[in-house]
Design brief:
Elements lengths: L1 H5 L9 H5 L1 H29 L6 H32 L9
Helix pairs in contact: 3-4
């Protein structure tokens, strides 16, 4: 449950109902992470136009790489939250070789 809270804004820790019901927290965390993935995709698409003229070319390249890295991290966290939510609903996963 702490991992779920770590993926969300700090304010989420103030809501007792979400902490008492891990299935709700997992669902909300998944929604939050999905929104973050969308935001990173939009940032990557818009960065050249929005900030490109205001930073040196090497800085823009670095920023784009960091946006991409954060997007990859968020995708993995989103998938993990989704799988945890499914497990909390009782879904049984079969091991794959």
């Amino acid at each position: 449950m702490l991992w779920l809270l770590d993926q969300c804004p700090p304010d989420y820790r103030a809501y007792d109902g979400w902490r008492k019901h891990p299935i709700a927290l997992a669902w909300l965390t998944g929604r939050h992470l999905e929104g973050q993935v969308v935001a990173m995709r939009e940032a990557w698409r818009e960065a050249r136009v929005a900030i490109g003229p205001h930073v040196p070319p090497e800085a823009l390249a670095e920023i784009l790489l960091q946006i991409e890295a954060e997007g990859i991290r968020l995708l993995a966290a989103s998938r993990s939250a989704r799988l945890l939510h499914e497990a909390l609903q009782g879904k049984v996963f079969a091991p794959r070789l």
